[in-house]
């Protein structure tokens, strides 16, 4: 990694912010941007933007095709990103990394593959706190196969009730979020994996909110599959990652078919290459892989332990600051224990969208709505909520700006 303050300066949020051009802009009413929506998508440091630009300016070609120099360089960049991600996650081998368009596609890839083996009476176990991306694919799989969908329920404090009796000899896969995108809850992931493997079930973790914010070693985690998105961890939009134990990937049929993933093609039949090529048809998105590779370098230099510690401090500040505002209800746990840097809340007497609009006028960007987690919101007893989500570039002053903005919204709407 080059041209970044992290080469010479220890973790310093003010220095880090200088690596993110967008954070220096002003927004509505010429207010400085306070970006508290990294749970939806993160911002990009200059090194990531430069990596994509350099690919197009110097190496642009179709990877895995042709023997000319540019084609070889594109292939090296693409496969180099795979090696880097395998190391970042502690995977046993690079072939356990599959590039997808998103975490959503990665989960669908696994669900589609299991449709060939599930039968009526088989069981799928998820949880009540899932993002739709880790709920709807399993609903559809149950409909296609006649399998039964079951789920861990949410406790009153927002955490999960891990009822071991839900996992039986009929359970074929257990799929849970690594961190709730609403309440920030981090389930006991290793415990759930052990319960799944005890009955011979596969185990998938939706890591979209986990991998960008915490150190993750897939072998210690025990997951057979882990899906996440590059754009939530400083990387480009449009590229996701599916980690899978090699034997688990090898057992799945291809999800999409076409060029690049074939072994032999005849008019009568086709055989397929082994993973990961089996799951990557078409021309690879090399520019996106270059950007994600640079993002991994940036986070690795920063240190994922430092990332987690910084976000935990911000979360503790937010829980305290918002908890002091009369009429504000924080959704989920009120401590940082097993909780990530996402704080969702309601303001009594003011609709979530109105709160979001007032904050936007003040330059504070948060998310409003049900955050693709409708069942969870019903369980929490609210139609919609506001969500602030933090990342490596956020400051304690921005938490104070959020709290001040909420107070202003209450005053504006006379709540």
Automatic annotation (TrEMBL):
- Pfam families associated with the record: Aminotran_5
Task: Give an example GO biological process.
Answer: cysteine metabolic process
Query: Per its UniProt entry, what is the enzyme's top EC class, as one word?
Result: transferase
Please name the InterPro entries in this protein's record.
Aminotrans_V_dom (IPR000192), Cys_dSase_SufS (IPR010970), PyrdxlP-dep_Trfase (IPR015424), PyrdxlP-dep_Trfase_major (IPR015421), PyrdxlP-dep_Trfase_small (IPR015422)
Names of the cofactor(s): pyridoxal 5'-phosphate
- What one GO molecular function would you report for this record? pyridoxal phosphate binding
Tell me which residues make up the Aminotransferase class V domain: 34-402
Q: What is its EC number?
A: 2.8.1.7
Q: Which reaction does it catalyse?
A: (sulfur carrier)-H + L-cysteine = (sulfur carrier)-SH + L-alanine
Keywords per UniProt: Pyridoxal phosphate, Transferase
| Keyword set includes Transferase | yes
Respond yes or no to whether keyword Iron-sulfur is given for this record: no
Q: Which family does it belong to?
A: Belongs to the class-V pyridoxal-phosphate-dependent aminotransferase family. Csd subfamily.
Tell me what this protein is called: cysteine desulfurase
